[in-house]
Amino acid sequence: MTTTPVLQQPPTSPKRRPKPAVTVVSALVLALALAAGGFTLWRATHDGEDGPLAGRPRVEDTAAGLSYALPEGWKRSDGDLIDSFTSSITHEHTDGEGGSVVLAGRGGAVPDAGLKTYTERWARSNAEFFYPDGSSTVTRSEPITTDGRPAHTVALRVADQEGSTGHLRLTVITVDDTRTAFLLTVVQPATAPENETADAVLESAAVL
User: What is the model's pLDDT at position 81?
Assistant: First the structure.
C-alpha cells in the first residue's frame, strides 16, 4: 500500500488511491474527499509580493501557516481534504485533458540539516501515491529560502503505466523550531507553461 505524506510523523496509509488513468483533478476528488480539512481565508492582495503572480488574490491557510497566490483560471477545489492537507487549489487544462493541483499542509519540526532528506522522501511518497504503478525521477533538489525561512524544494518527473508524464514538486518550509509547512503541486500531463504556473504558486509562498 502506498502512502500520503504526514509530515509530523511517518506516513499513514490512505483509504483510497487514484487510478493511473484518471486525471489529476478527478483523482483528487477520490483522494481528498475523505475527511475534514483545514480552514482557509482569502484576501485580495499580498503587500510586497513580486514575481509572475504579483497582484493575484491569495489563499491564507491559517492551519498550515502559509499564504500563496491564486493564478488566473484556478479555483479553490471542492470537497474535503484528508488530514495531511489543509487547503488546495486546482486548474483544469484548457484542452480538457488533465489538470493541476496545489495542496498545502502542516508538519512537525525538521532539523535544517535534514530538510533535503525529508523533502525528497515525502516527494517520492507522493509520487507513489498519485502514480502507484508508475515511475519518478528527481529533476531538481535544492535548498531555498521562503519568506526568510530555510526551505527545500524537490521536483520530480513522474510517469504513469501508460507512459503519460507529469510534474510533481514539493517545497517544505521551516516555519519555526516546532513545525514545518509544505506546498505540493501535481501537473498531469506535464506541459511547460502549466508547470511554470504551478511552480510560481509554490514560489509565491509566504509565512503567516
Answer: 76
Is 207 within 8 Å of 66 (Cβ atoms)?
yes
- Residue 174 CA: distances (Å) to CA of 17, 24, 45, 109, 184: 28, 28, 24, 7, 15
pTM for the whole structure: 0.78
Q: What is the Cα–Cα distance from 108 to 182, expressed in whole angstroms? A: 11
H/E/C letters for each residue in 88-125? Answer: EEEEECCCCCCEEEEEEEEEECCCHHHHHHHHHHHHHH
Residue 79 binned pLDDT confidence (cut-offs 50, 70, 90): low
Closest CA to 39 of 75, 4, 64: 64
Q: Shortest CA distance to 185 belongs to which of 160, 204, 164? A: 204
169 within 8 A of 154, measured Cβ to Cβ: yes
pLDDT(131) > 60: yes
Question: What are the grid coordinates assigned to 194, written together?
Answer: 502549466
At 87, list the grid cell.
Answer: 487547503
